[in-house]
């Protein structure tokens, strides 16, 4: 969803554009002149402006130049009846990202906004490591998603939060809720082996957990907690 300002002095056209873009899920505000957006737009966080060039008072070219100076990252789409090559050149030189000659269909305008939104709101990069969901008890990696038991999820979260991702044996036993009995190292070894296998299954490295002799374990994977 983008925050969009439509600057168009034709009331019917402005209303039609505002309603159409709202229907696409955007937050849209209409203005009938450049002076209105200058006065009221300060309180808005605007991602993109759709601007007509033939406006009363300050024209669209002047408004575009001013917006580009004050907000270099804003998206600007010009809509105008000026269709000569020189007009388009001046529009782009003034700071337009996209120049659409009128009449412009709503389909063409929404397609232009979608194209421009890829620059304004680029998709977040996919995580490169593992993602632990401590609520759903899942571990997500490059190869897919796998379910965890509650103790397994708690243990991975403890490793993720620990300094250098290291836990001593007694800390691991406490997390696994075995703190009221003598350490069962064989059972602990089986648990760590099973957890390592699950991490490899969803895309972790060959040795996600490293045993530290006479001390504990180190977690060797990048991980994100959600």
Automatic annotation (TrEMBL):
- Kindly give the Gene3D superfamilies that the UniProt entry links to this protein: 3.40.50.2300, Winged helix-like DNA-binding domain superfamily/Winged helix DNA-binding domain (1.10.10.10)
List residues of the OmpR/PhoB-type domain. 117-221
| The entry's DNA-binding region | 117-221
| Keyword vocabulary terms for this entry | DNA-binding, Phosphoprotein, Transcription, Transcription regulation, Two-component regulatory system
Look up the domain of life of the source: Bacteria
The residues covered by the Response regulatory domain are: 3-117
Molecular-function annotations in GO: DNA binding
SMART domains on file: REC (SM00448), Trans_reg_C (SM00862)
Q: Which residues carry this modification: 4-aspartylphosphate?
A: 52
Transmembrane annotation, as ranges: none
Extract the SUPFAM superfamilies matched here.
Answer: C-terminal effector domain of the bipartite response regulators (SSF46894), CheY-like (SSF52172)
Name of this chain's protein: DNA-binding response OmpR family regulator
Q: Which organism is it from?
A: Ancylobacter polymorphus
Traced from the root, the source organism's taxonomic lineage reads: Bacteria, Pseudomonadati, Pseudomonadota, Alphaproteobacteria, Hyphomicrobiales
